[in-house]
Amino acid sequence: RFQQIPTFGNGVIRMFANNMSEMKRLVARDFEDILQCAIPVFEGLFPASHDMVVQSLLFRFAQWHALTKLRIHSESTLSFFEDMFKKLSRQL
Q: What is the pTM of this model?
């Protein structure tokens, strides 16, 4: 299903390998691309009750990742980051 995701921008999201489950020869940007595209790829793969949990976890991980990439944090972003980490921890 990752193969069906089109590339985006100039080097923003690159074409995925034929078999992403092998996880071979990946660099950091590949893991970031996987996380960014995981929500639509995983949608509908699980029964409805589990699918909602998986989608929610993927969204929380994407939010957490976006916050970690900020170069400068304010009090509000640190507070949001702390709350996000607590919510993610509870879900796991």
A: 0.62
